[in-house]
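Record 1 of the preview.
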Amino acid sequence: MAHKITASIRVTIGSVLFALASSAFLHLIPPSPIDRHLLRGSFHPYYQGHAYLIPVKYYDGPLDAAQLYEDDRPLGPANSSKEEIIDKGAGRFLFYRETERATNYFGPVLVFSTSDNTDPNTNGRKYHLK
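->
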């Protein structure tokens, strides 16, 4: 005895398959775009004082024109000396290409201090380069 599949059963099966395929596709879409300018990872204390160092993987502009932001607030002055960053802090930063073997990293590096000389690993703020 053969069973006939009615039109309403076909519509129900098609609707279920469409819903399953749609929900599977939605899981492939990232929840938000990746901010390539957000500095991720650990900020390493730079010898002493108020300075921290982080290698920068994604930056496509001229290093001396970069602007560092703490949340949405610009920091600076830019292109400060390492000594000023260590001694005074207060948002100073230097973005340069590392060529020394001491850091075991060759590429763009940011040495900076936070606006209030706190530890950027624990102060809850986000840092962006633009």
